[in-house]
Specification:
It is a single chain. With 126 residues, the chain is α+β, with helices and mostly antiparallel strands. The chain has one domain. It is built from 1 helix and 9 strands; from the N terminus they run H-E-E-E-E-E-E-E-E-E. Strands 1-2-3-4-5-6-7-8-9 form a 9-stranded mixed β-barrel. The longest helix is centred in the N-terminal third of the chain and has 19 residues.
Length: 126
């Protein structure tokens, strides 16, 4: 009997981190500009990867993404009111993108800015 109970509990513990994950998908007011950042579950902000698009260019943390400009996750901060993410070049020498988001009355209202080096800043809604 204990063994029958232990198996489902063990399986639930193994898959729960996957179910706990969330993510940010932000769209700018300018068509073709967006940012997608899957987040790991648990305390704090834990970006797992990122893809940013603007003006026909793509930045990605995925080294296998063909044609993408490689970026790394630089810094990540989040509290009850804001989320701040920085992305660097692939040598971590300079910040090439910044996502600055503010959380409204609930987690369902998130907006802010996406800044891209040599391109500029865009208003985004997530």
């Amino acid at each position: 009997m204990v063994r029958l109970f232990a198996i489902p509990v063990a399986m639930a513990l193994l898959i729960s981190p996957v179910l706990a994950g969330e993510g940010l998908v932000c769209f700018a007011t300018v068509p073709g500009t967006s940012a997608g950042v899957p987040l790991g579950g648990g305390q704090g902000i834990s970006p797992l990867s990122a893809e940013i698009e603007s003006g026909g260019r793509l930045w990605s943390t995925d080294p296998l993404q063909v044609g993408a400009i490689p970026i790394l996750i630089g810094q990540a901060f989040g509290d009850d009111e804001s989320i701040r993410l920085d992305f660097t070049d692939d040598n971590s020498e300079r910040v090439v993108a910044k996502l600055r988001l503010f959380v409204g009355g609930s987690d369902d209202v998130i907006a802010g800015t996406l800044w891209l080096e040599d391109i500029g800043a865009f208003a985004v809604v997530c």
